[in-house]
Amino acid sequence: YIEQLEREFGLDRPPLERFTRMMWKYMQFDFGESYFRSIKVVDLVLEKMPVSISLGLWSTLLIYLVSIPLGVRKAMRDGSTFDTVTSALVIVGYGIPSFLFAIMLLVLFAGGSYWQIFPLRGLTSNGFEEMNLLAKIGDYFWHMALPIFASVISGFATLTLLTKNSFLDEIRKQYVVTARAKGLTENRVLFGHIFRNAMLIVIAGFPSLFIGVFFGGSLFIETIFSLDGLGRLGFEAAISRDYPVMFGTLFAFGLLGLIVGILSDLMYVIIDPRIDFEARG
């Protein structure tokens, strides 16, 4: 029986041949079938990927919506009590592990020991298919609220301080002094001149922040909140030694990371035309 399994999975071949065949199949997105689910791995990955992508995307958008206004405000009130207090808060949040914050949210707001406000697990409620469009949207975000908050807790610090420092660097430049000398209002100087230049590095970092949230919190957050995504799929495959699924999820994470890294580099050129890699050659 063991020899039959070795022939079936190609384990009776020399290591170099096995590796070459495996890489050739991976280039064709052929990861084989799951040992225990009788389904192609690529279909399984495509089925779970929307959950992980939506978690990473909404978390990244929320981080940007909070961090950019907060960073601008801190730059305008640099050295004030507001600046000191908010810096302390975001640094404390940065130091809290996402899985620990997720458990705290479950205990407080998901019926652990205090309030039953949000659902404990899953992405949708029973009877989701019978709901109208507005009810489906509300139910979806009701289930995603705690996972998203758990994912973003450590993401505010870096972007907030980056935004603040970018604005402080631009405020000290000569063109800002010239704009103020011409009699422009402070809002016109801030949003008409400083904002566009200061936001270059912040906006260009969107892909890398997304992939950081996508990689960093997917396993713990999806497991704690019982979300059926890539992180949880890979974890369960590792526990059950479902090797095709393990390699398939690793391939998906790695490929997405490479694509987002390339997009991050290209975004610098798109946002700031002054960056020209060809001219450097």
Report on the architecture of this protein.
There is one protein chain. With 281 residues, the protein is mostly helical. The chain is built from 13 helices and no strands. Helix 3 (41-76) packs across helix 7 (156-171).
**By helix and strand content, what is the structural category?**
mainly alpha
Helical element count?
13
Give the SSE order as H and E letters.
HHHHHHHHHHHHH
Output mean pLDDT: 80
What percent of residues are in strands? under 5%
Q: Total strand count, please?
A: 0
Query: Considering DSSP H and I runs of 4 or more, what fraction of the residues is helical?
Result: over 70%
Radius of gyration from the alpha-carbon trace, in angstroms: 24 Å
Residue windows where pLDDT falls under 50 for at least 5 positions: none
Give the termini distance in whole angstroms: 60 Å
Main beta sheet strand tally, sense and closure: none
What is the overall silhouette? globular
What secondary-structure arrangement, pairings included, does this model have?
Elements: H1 2-8, H2 15-27, H3 41-76, H4 81-95, H5 98-109, H6 133-152, H7 156-171, H8 174-181, H9 186-204, H10 206-224, H11 230-240, H12 243-271, H13 277-280
Helix pairs in contact: 3-6, 3-7, 3-10, 3-12, 4-7, 5-6, 5-10, 6-10, 7-9, 8-9, 9-12, 10-11, 10-12, 11-12
Name a few traits of the molecule.
281 residues; 74% helix; 13 helices
Summarize the structure.
The protein is mainly alpha-helical and 281 residues long.
